[in-house]
Design brief:
CATH class of the largest domain: Mainly Alpha
Number of helices: 11
Number of strands: 6
Order of helices and strands: HHEHHEEHHEHHEEHHH
Helix content: 55-70%
Structural class: alpha+beta
CATH architecture of the largest domain: Orthogonal Bundle
Distance between the termini: 57 Å
CATH superfamily of the largest domain: Winged helix-like DNA-binding domain superfamily/Winged helix DNA-binding domain
C-alpha cells in the first residue's frame, strides 16, 4: 500500500484534480452530481480523480442517504452535520426562516417556506435529530427554534457564494447591513 502524499501540490498536479479539489475546498459538502456540474468533468473521470484524492488523504467522502458529500481534509474544519443539512434547499429555507425568528410553530414555518405541513415536519425531524433545531411546548403549542444561530451564521456567511441561493445572499446582505449600523 502506498503512503499518503503529504504534498498537496504533488497530489493535485493534474489540472482536472486541481479543479476538483478547488471546487470541494470552496464548496464543502457538495454531492457528486453538483460537484460534476460545477467542475465540468465527465462522470467516470470525476469518480477516478475523487478516488485518487481520497487515497491520498486530500478529501473525504461522507455518505448521507443516497448522496455522497465531499470535504477537504486540508484547511479549516467544517461542521459537516450542519453543512449537509444546509446543502438541502428545503431545509435551508426552514433554517433561514428560523434565523429571523426567536421561535415558530410548525404551521407558520410550513406557510412561510411554502411546503406542506407533512414535508416541513419531515425536515424539522431531521433538524431535531441532529440538534440543529430544538423544540419547546408552550401550552398546547409546540415551537421550534435554532440551537446555535452563531454556528449557522458563520457557515452561511463563509460559504454564501457556494449555496447559489438568492435567499442566502439576501439574508447575508441583511445581516452584514445590521453589523454596519
Amino acid at each position: 500500500m502506498r503512503e499518503p502524499i503529504d504534498n498537496l501540490e504533488e497530489a493535485i498536479a493534474l489540472s482536472s484534480r486541481d479543479k476538483i479539489y478547488s471546487t470541494i475546498a470552496k464548496n464543502p459538502g457538495l454531492h457528486f452530481r453538483e460537484l460534476q456540474r460545477r467542475a465540468g468533468i465527465a462522470t467516470g473521470a470525476l469518480q477516478y480523480h475523487i478516488d485518487c484524492l481520497k487515497k491520498k488523504h486530500i478529501i473525504r467522502e461522507e455518505k448521507e442517504g443516497k448522496f455522497s458529500r465531499f470535504y477537504s481534509l486540508r484547511g479549516g474544519e467544517v461542521n459537516t452535520v450542519l453543512m449537509n443539512l444546509l446543502r438541502q434547499a428545503s431545509v435551508r429555507r426552514i433554517v433561514l426562516f428560523l434565523m429571523k425568528r426567536r421561535r415558530a410553530a410548525l404551521p407558520q414555518i410550513a406557510k412561510e417556506v411554502q411546503l406542506s405541513v407533512s414535508t416541513t415536519s419531515f425536515h424539522l425531524q431531521k433538524l431535531l435529530h441532529s440538534q440543529v433545531v430544538l423544540q419547546k411546548n408552550y401550552g398546547k403549542k409546540t415551537y421550534f427554534f435554532l440551537a446555535d444561530k452563531d454556528a449557522i451564521l458563520q457557515i452561511l456567511l463563509t460559504y454564501r457564494k457556494s449555496f447559489l441561493d438568492e435567499m442566502v445572499d439576501s439574508f447575508a446582505d441583511l445581516w452584514e447591513e445590521e453589523l454596519v449600523r
